Amino acid sequence: MIKTFTADTLNTLADKAAQAPRLRAHLNVHESLDAPVQRLFVATEPATYMRPHRHPESHKWEFFIVLEGQIDLLIFNDAGQLMQRTPMSRTATRAVEIPPNTWHAYVCMQSGTLALEVKQGPYIPTPEHDFAPWAPAENTAQAADYVAWMRQAQPA
């Protein structure tokens, strides 16, 4: 069966993100969390916090393409220094592939941002030791300040 995703479907996803407590929402394309390839649409809003993290497994690359809006990819070294910032939009970089074991995060720069993420499965929740120890955890008092820093930070 062919799967189709209409503009209305994706607009509804963006509306869900705007209403969600974490200000993001996703729509899985893959059938199960055990699928060998994970494909999902991701809608984000500017105040969402995507904590820097890594996928240390040698096969855990991440492919990310922006469909609408703007989201910036941030790449960090092991000490938490910002090494690279890549603005992603329809008029800038459209897609990136992040290699395994790379500290990264995304910061949403425009309301209604929509992306497609593809990565090798199965899905395994990110363990605490693969979240950046130098970045605050979600739902902490420091997280909002860190998002504000992420929105304007530039590589050294």
Description:
The chain has a single domain, classed as Jelly Rolls (Sandwich). With 156 residues, the protein is of the alpha+beta class. The chain has 2 helices and 8 strands; from the N terminus they run αββββββββα. A 5-stranded antiparallel β-sheet has the order 1-2-8-3-6, with helices on one face.
Give unreliable regions as ranges. Answer: none
Give the strand tally. 8
Which H/E pattern describes the elements? Answer: HEEEEEEEEH
CATH superfamily: Jelly Rolls
Q: In angstroms, what separates the terminal alpha carbons?
A: 49 Å
Rg from alpha-carbon coordinates: 15 Å
Domains (count): 1
Q: Please work out how many helical segments DSSP would assign.
A: 2
**Percent in strands:** 25-35%
Query: What is the CATH topology classification name?
Result: Jelly Rolls
Report strand order across the widest sheet. 1-2-8-3-6
Mean pLDDT: 96
CATH class: Mainly Beta
Measured as a percent range, the helix fraction is: 10-25%
CATH architecture term: Sandwich
Q: Shape, please?
A: globular
Q: What structural class is derived from the secondary structure elements? A: alpha+beta
Condensed summary:
The chain is of the alpha+beta class and 156 residues long. It has helices at residues 7-19, 143-152, and strands spanning 24-28, 37-44, 62-68, 70-76, 82-89, 95-98, 103-108, 113-120. The longest helix has 13 residues, at 7-19.
